[in-house]
Design goal:
single chain; about 170 residues; mainly beta; Porin
Length: about 170
């Protein structure tokens, strides 16, 4: 993936593994996760992007399976395996040279989480939409500040996330 100022272009692939073993009850969990993301800058002020991802738990259930779905409170869903799709568009609202840049990113997130705890029909689907405000500070090029608001259409509930990321 290539960064040009605060826009990305290209493809990014992630593969993660989490192995947890609970010694007190001799149980554990092994979880594999992967993401494929693509970014396309259409203009200096406009970027289209999407992400396709999933997880599989070979032992136990993956808790917080909603963490890839902005709008679904993370602990509200869990399961044996799941798949997710995200579509978003980034708009540069303003940019002040040597100070920073503000972007607004509307999104739609969709997912399916399989669990033996419920039926595998409509209750397994997750869908949400919202927007992210992203502030890039020129003097701190690796620091990204996010305010993310999403709406969970299945549960008719909001999720608000305020975070910062340091990319080195």
């Amino acid at each position: 993936m290539n960064w040009k100022k605060n826009s990305r272009s290209g493809i990014q692939i992630d593969l993660e593994n989490d192995n947890t073993w609970y010694l007190q009850n001799d149980r554990g969990s092994i979880i594999w996760e992967s993401d494929l993301a693509g970014y396309h800058p259409a203009a200096p002020w406009l970027e289209f992007s999407g992400r396709l991802g999933g997880f599989a738990a070979s032992e136990g259930l993956r808790a917080n399976a909603g963490d890839r779905l902005r709008g679904v409170v993370d602990f509200m869903t869990f399961g044996k395996w799941g798949a997710f799709f995200t579509a978003q568009t980034s708009f540069r609202i303003f940019s002040v040279e040597n100070i920073g840049e503000l972007q607004i990113r509307p999104f739609g997130d969709f997912g399916y989480v399989y669990s033996d705890e419920w039926d595998h029909g409509a209750s397994s689907w997750e869908y949400c939409a919202g927007a992210t405000a992203i502030l890039y500070i020129t003097s701190l090029p690796g620091l990204i500040l996010n305010v993310e608001w999403g709406w969970d259409f299945k549960r008719c509930a909001p999720e608000l996330i305020i975070d910062s990321r340091l990319k080195i």
